[in-house]
Task: structure prediction
Amino acid sequence: MSNVVLSQDEIHAPYGGVVPELASRQHLTSISYVVGECLKRSQLKLDQIDAYAVTQGPGLIGALLVGLSFAKGLAYYFGKPLIGIDHLEAHIESVFLESRQISFPALALVVSGGHTSIFFMKKKNDYQLIGRTRDDAAGEALDKIAKFLDLGYPGGPIIDKLAKKGNPQKFAFAIPQMTDGSLDFSFSGLKTAALRQIRDFNISKNNPHFFDFLASFEMAVIRALLSNLAQTVKRFKPQSLILCGGVARNKKLRQHFIEFGKELDLSSFIPSPSLCSDNAAMVAAMGLEKLKSGKRFSYFLDLNAYPRFS
Ligand code: KG4
Ligand code: ZN
Result:
């Protein structure tokens, strides 16, 4: 009914990345306003809410605790169920907000600023983690290279825009491969290779190959994601592919992901860009799924936040 997103990008931009302490404080000062605005836009009163869904993790612990404590207060006061939601499962749920005809089994690739993970879903609401990054997340790699080149924050959308003007074949990047047969990702090698090229070729905004460099690096990140996905498809033989998380806003990634699905004759699904970035609608949708499952939820005041994937 309403989905209010308050960006903190401006607050973190001067530091070139999220400052956890600033993030928690900003959550604290804006949460009442955001919830109030959400109710206003949906023309609802708090006593009309049947249940509260809130992100438990993974994420920054301070920010998670602010949301969780606020939701606990509301659930307790109004005597309504409180449903703890996993951030990555909620990203996957964002696809189901718009597309209901997804056949299973499915593979879901979650690509964000903090996570790069693949889940196997035998059926709806059934998640098996089969690969994740061992170091940087894909979004983090894009953000760090943008920061290094002094392009602004967050770097992902900036690279998305600037890379369009460049030739993605100009700079060569080796795609990381796991030697132990695992389906994990690694982006720190790619980031180091990019830093080396920046130094060797003197890449800056004034270099004639600046856009080519960004296009090549963006393409390397996309190739790393899709080459791992290709291996996963071979092993798990899904019927559908899902792409979600903040980096799924990237236009070139969206295009290559759809082409990848077509080549393998698999149906592929990506949420609309506004539902790819962190948002409350995906958390509420996941909460509704859990509520409908028939499981009894009491006030659960002992729910706790977790910083890492559980
Ligand atoms: O899922 P998300 O909103 O927050 C986390 O859970 O991390 O993802 C944020 C990440 C950031 O790294 C940001 O640079 C990246 O998503 N991002 C993009 C684009 N828009 C956001 N990366 C590439 N292209 C974009 N258009
Ligand atoms: Zn996220």
About this structure: The chain has two domains: 9-87+277-292, 99-270.
